[in-house]
TrEMBL record:
Annotated Alpha-amylase C-terminal beta-sheet domain residues: 455-513
Taxonomic source organism: Actinidia rufa
Membrane-crossing segments per the record: none
Keywords: Carbohydrate metabolism, Glycosidase, Hydrolase
Pfam families: Alpha-amyl_C2, Alpha-amylase
The keyword tRNA-binding belongs to this UniProt entry's keyword annotation: no
Gene Ontology MF annotations: alpha-amylase activity; calcium ion binding
Superkingdom field: Eukaryota
Cofactor entry: Ca(2+)
Start and end residues of each Glycosyl hydrolase family 13 catalytic domain: 139-466
Protein's UniProt name: alpha-amylase
Length: 513
């Protein structure tokens, strides 16, 4: 779900307006192409890779303290094996490992940094350039769980489905929160460094991530950092201290609005639990360290930021810049505009708030297009005229900033057994965009056909949308210049012999040239 500069390999965006003003509407100039990054790597010889592996083994087995004798031997080993190959980078990596390893829980981060420093510098810039996926715009995201998945040995269950997920054409799978939580679903986190959850053990999770990597499906971690359940009581008799576990914060880490001694929240409160104060430097430093651990040591590649309304988007920008996920998406969900119980036609103020949040991240994150979801749910009631705004464009975030809009119909909150805002199930194939993994065989096959058409016709997030019809019972549009689609009961087909029916189903049809 930007305009990015990666410190080692700068990239820049072409165009006069890399970040549009927050009040600007219409097509964003930041959707223009990017220059390709320059890539270089001084470490590519097999001999260096072998020696580096030995070095990491030494660190893992023996680096349990920071005494001077050990450090002197450590440095001697480093200079003997690595410095002759590339002096500048090796000295830099040694200093970084020494710094990171002062705390035992950071050893995995240190080792991961060592690997990157020895043979990973620039070796796969696609993996560290957080703008590459957004510039590509060809991602298809699968939400790979629902609200009840924790009851079903989920990591092992999902591992068996990885080949089908890859074969179906999904590029990324969003997994539920993987860390220890006070609630089985994972959304009341406590010990962020424990990977034993109700979804399975740490071993099972890593086996799943390894299989996803083998099949080239990126794993998206659900990042729940708006709030955190304490372990002991502190100020006011509330559970706002985190003694006895990694990231052992005190009451200063909790906003004063939710029972702590920190500053006021920079977003909306998540009531009933301690909300994290992201204005505190020590909090942000620890969160970045944790995100780096998830990214480099555990094996997650993408991030989804839960309850993004709860803290300022500037901190999401800082976290993305620090941990460098391949792609990110934020859940900025607030209410659409209604007149009584009826949805307003004009939802510009709603989508503008989501656009503001994306702007606040520096364009480094995408966002779920809740505006489009709200409009689609009313459109299926015989109101397809809602699907074209006064400027003739799609009425959601996708109409203003398509490269940053992640469209979807339902997720674990809106649908599933929670059903806070469910999409009518009998209309699901008309508006399929993003789904969660509890489909049947019939809808599975239809979805795969649509993904295949998108891939074969080289559609992406920047492909143009020309809306031809938006009536009560009919919507039709041309996407790019080679795909045409229609939904609704109305009779319609594209003019011209060049169009061939690609697939069709209940109240929808797709053609291509």
């Amino acid at each position: 779900m930007p305009n990015i500069e990666v410190s080692d390999f700068p990239t820049r965006e072409i165009g006069p307006l890399p970040f549009p003003p927050k009040t600007r509407k219409g097509n964003r100039k930041s959707d223009t192409p990017f220059a390709k990054p320059r890539i270089s790597s001084p470490f590519c010889a097999p001999l260096v890779k072998f020696k580096a592996s030995v070095f990491v083994l030494v660190v893992t087995e023996y680096f349990s303290g920071t005494n001077s004798i050990f450090l002197s031997r450590f440095y001697a080993l480093w200079t003997k094996i690595v410095v002759p190959v590339h002096r500048n980078q090796s000295i830099l990596c040694f200093l970084y490992i020494y710094k990171c390893s002062r705390r035992r829980r950071d050893i995995h981060t240190a080792i991961a940094s060592a690997r990157t420093g020895v043979w990973g510098i620039g070796a796969s810039n696609q993996e560290t350039d957080v703008g590459a996926v957004i510039r590509n715009g060809r991602e298809v995201l699968l939400q790979a769980y629902n609200w009840e998945s924790h009851k079903h040995d989920w990591w092992r269950n999902l591992e068996n489905k990885v080949p089908d997920i890859a074969k179906s054409g999904f590029t990324s799978a969003w997994l539920p929160p993987a860390t220890h939580s006070f609630s089985p679903e994972g959304y009341l986190p406590q010990n962020l460094y424990s990977l034993n959850s109700s979804y399975g053990s740490e071993h099972q999770l890593k086996a799943l991530l390894q299989k996803m990597k083998l099949y080239k499906v990126r794993a998206m971690a659900d990042i729940v950092i708006n709030h955190r359940i304490g372990t002991t009581t502190g100020h006011g008799g509330k559970y706002n201290r985190y003694d006895g576990i990694p990231l052992s914060w005190d009451e200063r880490a909790v906003t004063c609005c939710t029972g702590g001694l920190g500053n006021r929240s920079t977003g909306d409160n998540f009531n009933g639990v301690p909300n994290i104060d992201h204005t505190q430097y020590f909090v942000r430093k620890d969160i970045i360290g944790w995100l780096k651990w998830l990214r480099n040591a555990v094996g997650f590649q993408d991030f989804r930021f839960d309850f993004a309304r709860g803290y300022s988007a500037q901190y999401v920008k800082e976290y993305i810049e620090g941990a460098k996920p391949v792609s990110s998406v934020g859940e900025y969900w607030d209410s659409c505009c209604y007149n009584g119980h009826r949805l307003d036609y004009n939802q510009d103020s709603h989508r503008q708030r989501i656009v503001h949040w994306i702007d606040g991240t520096g364009g480094l994150s995408t966002a779920f297009d809740f505006t489009t979801k709200g409009i689609l749910q009313e459109a299926v009631k015989g109101e397809f005229w809602r699907l074209r705004d006064p400027q003739g464009k799609p009425p959601g975030v996708i109409g203003w900033w398509p490269s940053r809009a992640v469209t979807f119909l339902d997720n674990h909150d809106t649908g599933s057994t929670q059903a806070h805002w469910p999409f009518p199930s009998h209309h699901i194939m008309e508006f399929f965009t993003t789904i969660f993994y509890d489909w049947g065989n019939s809808i599975h096959n239809e979805i795969v056909k649509l993904i295949d058409i998108r891939k074969r016709q080289d559609l992406n997030s920047r492909s143009s949308i020309r809306i031809l019809e938006a009536q009560a019972n009919l919507y039709a549009a041309i996407i790019g210049d080679k795909v045409c689609m229609k939904i609704g009961d109305g009779m319609w087909c594209p003019a011209g012999r060049e169009w061939t029916l690609a697939t069709c189903g209940n109240r929808y049809a797709v053609w291509h040239k």
